[in-house]
Design brief:
The protein has 279 residues and is mostly beta strands. It has one domain. It is 12% helix and 30% strand. Strands 1, 2, 3, 4, 5, 6, 7, 8, 9, 13 and 14 form an eleven-stranded mixed beta sheet that branches. Strands 10-12-11 form a three-stranded antiparallel beta sheet, with no helix packed on it. Strand 11 and strand 12 form a beta hairpin. It starts with a strand and ends with a strand.
Amino acid sequence: MSRKVILSRKAFDGSAGGKPSPIYNNRLLPFHIPRADTGIFYKDLMVTSTESYLKMMKDLGIRQYSETHLDPDLESTMMKNRPKEWRGLFGQSGISQGTLHNRDVGPGDLFLFFGWFKEVEKVNGKYRYVPDAPDLHVIFGYMEVEEVWDVHKDKVPSWAEYHPHIQEKDDNKSKRNCIYAAAADFSKNPGQRGWGTFGYDKRLVLTEEGARNRTQWKLPSCFKGEQQQFTHNIKVWNEGADGIEMQTSGRGDQEMYVSSNRKVVEWAERLIAEGQVSS
């Protein structure tokens, strides 16, 4: 079966969290969405060896949340005392998992995770959004899938039991609920892990340069003819010599795009292999 690429919307957005995630020192630092009673606290997730995500969030005016739905979990240094077996994990449930199931997403496929980002600076020891910096949709991480576990049916390894989609499985008994586990190595670049977060690079920016709205995208030419592979309603789709101008309507499915188009797959593989990756 041909490899597929999935564009998956994650991290804070206008309705979950309400503020953009930071681009800081050329790092993409996704704010994972808030969720009570997960047992995973922002104060325990580390931006650096001495500063937590909670400190950064409070500096940026985000003070109402303490716990998070840590998903996708892609950065090993974010949490202390990871078990040696740990690898990147991503969970999906409900309608969005139905999208992935119906399009046969599984081993060998590539997730590209994107979210809402804005440049951040540190002034007098405090983080702040850079005045007049643009709001952008940016690809912040990736995963090559090795295994898929149905949380309701399959035995999940003990090292993965912390994951929110497993901790909350009794709340989702009537819904599809799966965990995607990353491959140990990226198949196109042996020695590189099969998951990770990117350093900032203009090639990862989906929003068109100078756009007034972050949902106005400029996609590379490899996406020509791919309009029907998007799960969102698309209100702008203009194919030109230098790429595609695209804008969707509404929040839509988290799993925004799924396709096995060979040129798109090659584009995704290059982004991963050539990116500055933290894992």
